[in-house]
Amino acid sequence: MKGLCILGATGSIGVSTLDVAARHPHLYKVIALTANSNIDVLFQQCLAHHPQYVVVVNESKSQEFQQKISHSQVSDIKVLTGAEALEIVATLDEVDSVMAAIVGAAGLLPSLAAAKAGKTVLLANKEALVMSGDIFMDAVTASGAHLLPIDSEHNAIFQCMPAHYKTGTDGKQVRRILLTASGGPFREMPIEKMADVTPEQAVAHPNWDMGKKISVDSATMMNKGLEMIEACLLFNMSPEQIQVVIHPQSVIHSMVDYVDGTVLAQMGNPDMRIPIAHAMAWPERFDSGAKPLNIFDVRRMDFEEPNLQRFPCLRLAYKAIHAGGTMPTVLNAANEIAVEAFLDRRVKFTDIPVIIEQCMDAIAVAVADTLAVILDHDQQARTVAKQIIADRLN
Ligand code: NAD
Ligand code: MG
């Protein structure tokens, strides 16, 4: 029986993780659930899974939650609050596996704490890895933690890697990785129309049902840029070894190309419960609840090269990884601020890459050798990006 902590339980990945866990009550016990502020969903999850601990980061929501449970059958749950509490529950002795499913940089410290504590880290929160890079990977190596990718592409790559492969090490005889992308909702939209894209259009992804931030990232293809950096770190590859491939059907979730000419692909329906179940059952397998793939429904699969003019965010991700050091941290932070401004209708869809690039050009790259440097550059980038947005509005 493994103890499970879900960071970001109320989000899209968190909900899917609980769905998978509920299918295997003899294998997984839910120890801790965390949320930022969505206490209604969290309360329902507590009734269904009865964890020992809950973190509600927002303080007033946490008090409200405490009252909500006080006269219920889950009144014995220990309710914690504040961002530091996330680290407490991610490192509890009773916890074996931590699902890192908070969105954005907010997930870094608890995910890193779990890695340092030697937990099995199921990593959905790509921003945490992109912003901290080697620091995160070194923490995993030092503690002997298992780091299993949840991002569907990275999970696919992991499944196509040699037997007994461990993330962070060399993939023996691997020539390159083919990182697939759906191309998002605007793959075929005339480029000049992209300035008028609304948040509603951007979050309506053709194949995947996800949180708002990652949906916008998929539409700009910054998601693929972050994933390219994520793949370099997880699989110890250079950016030149990662080929992004647009594959609109989202049936192949990525491929690994070996030196002998073999290309292994992982396929399945676009349902995040598949990678989640893979990582939770690893090295075994169990039911995920996903529909089996009907290959006859697929009929055809298309592949094309990404157009960097249409998707400048992808170019910026390559620029960031080539600059190295703290530049991926800056890229990620500026993107978070720009996406938030777009969702608030303060900037246009096509302003997102402009804001990010101006921010990257404004901040000098530093060696990313300590967590303090990372957090400092994350903050600097947020301040600069907000200023750039304010200047554009004036
Ligand atoms: P979501 O917006 O649906 O959920 C985010 C979760 O994080 C919620 O539980 C929320 O309470 C929590 N959260 C948000 N801000 C927080 C903060 N400041 N402090 C603490 N908790 C906070 O997002 P999602 O789609 O589930 O994505 C989660 C992560 O997984 C992201 O990093 C995303 O890139 C990655 N991911 C998601 C998918 C997907 O299909 N949804 C696929 C691959 C990777
Ligand atoms: Mg992905």
TrEMBL record:
GO terms, molecular function: 1-deoxy-D-xylulose-5-phosphate reductoisomerase activity; isomerase activity; manganese ion binding; NADPH binding
UniProt domain DXP reductoisomerase C-terminal: residue ranges: 267-383
Domain (1-deoxy-D-xylulose 5-phosphate reductoisomerase N-terminal) ranges: 4-133
Residues reported in the UniProt entry to bind 1-deoxy-D-xylulose 5-phosphate: K126, S152, E153, S182, H205, S218, N223, K224, E227
SUPFAM superfamilies, per database record: 1-deoxy-D-xylulose-5-phosphate reductoisomerase, C-terminal domain, Glyceraldehyde-3-phosphate dehydrogenase-like, C-terminal domain, NAD(P)-binding Rossmann-fold domains
Pfam families, sorted: DXP_redisom_C, DXP_reductoisom, DXPR_C
Record-stated family: Belongs to the DXR family.
General function of this protein: Catalyzes the NADPH-dependent rearrangement and reduction of 1-deoxy-D-xylulose-5-phosphate (DXP) to 2-C-methyl-D-erythritol 4-phosphate (MEP).
This protein's name: 1-deoxy-D-xylulose 5-phosphate reductoisomerase
